[in-house]
Amino acid sequence: xxxxxxxxxxxxxxxxxxxxxxxxxxxxxxxxxxxxxxxxxxxxxxxxxxxxxxxxxxxxxxxxxxxxxxxxxxxxxxxxxxxxxxxxxxxxxxxxxxxxxxxxxxxxxxxxxxxxxxxxxxxxxxxxxxxxxxxxxxxxxxxxxxxxxxxxxxxxxxxxxxxxxxxxxxxxxxxxxxxxxxxxxxxxxxxxxxxxxxxxxxxxxxxxxxxxxxxxxxxxxxxxxxxxxxxxxxxxxxxxxxxxxxxxxxxxxxxxxxxxxxxxxxxxxxxxxxxxxxxxxxxxxx
Length: 286
Known about the structure:
Oligomer: single chain
């Protein structure tokens, strides 16, 4: 009681999540670029929709896996489960939260193996030469190379880093000055902020207000919240392909659907239960 127990395990969780984030980062931008280069123009919305739909299935299976792990005691494999006298309904129960990391990590490793067989370059040399834009760029590069004098001292590392930072700031300024992209970026930030808060606090809300266990709350959210989003993404891709929407048409379509979705989400304010009767908090002791 004099000294609280401390653990450094959170450092490993932090480093593991950082490595996972580094590995996940290239998938979306490079994957969409890969589809955009190799697929037909009218098929790209469907393929991108499939990519995002599959990405939504991951959290769904994650919630279902979390529901299963929450039913298992945290020290499974290290203690005799027959000696455990509490149940998952007990407030002192701690589920095997760590088991999901092992299963998810092994699955991610197996899923990463096929990426090793993708081609090193997105376009073949013949296709790049036939492309007018690429061909013109190659010509300009060739002309530039001819005009540069051959003898040039080798630059230092600091000289290499500074042009990179300068080019990066210039590119970032151009991207953020694009009004349509900047508006889409702000809209995405608002959407993800609300969606993350929704997923984070809804399980606890279901536990407190509806008296559900942690396992059942995760199961219900994984089954009811995420599959409709995945289905909607896939249907949106099909609609864009069928009507061959332009950027303006897609923007109007996205705005209309998002507006209707937020109107429907307002119905959550009318759903709820009365607070639990707690002596001294919600009611008097008498």
